[in-house]
Sequence to fold (117 residues):
Amino acid sequence: MVSTLRLRLNQWDKLQGYLLDGRLEIDNNRAERAIKPFVIGRKNWLFSNTPRGAKTSAILYSIVETTKENGLKPFNYITYLLERMPSLDLGEPGVLDSLMPWSESLPASFRTPQKPD
Fold:
């Protein structure tokens, strides 16, 4: 009982900090959800037979997760990239920027519906 009370008193300033700053979250669920695909994929990566295959998997996972974080549908976005990139001059200024998942020039149909706050 005494140790529980001591623990609570030792953490009191952190609790007050949380209560005074509305930007802080009480849990880390968002961070946990963000790393879940990597945890699930961990065993699958054991079967990457070559370093090149492992590197390709890492690139694809990065694209998919960045796409999701920017509110896009990964399948639509990657299909768009694969269709558009072969015909583009990637040396031209601004072309790569227009293909990034955070670009405002991407079709609106790629966006996932916004969840109400």
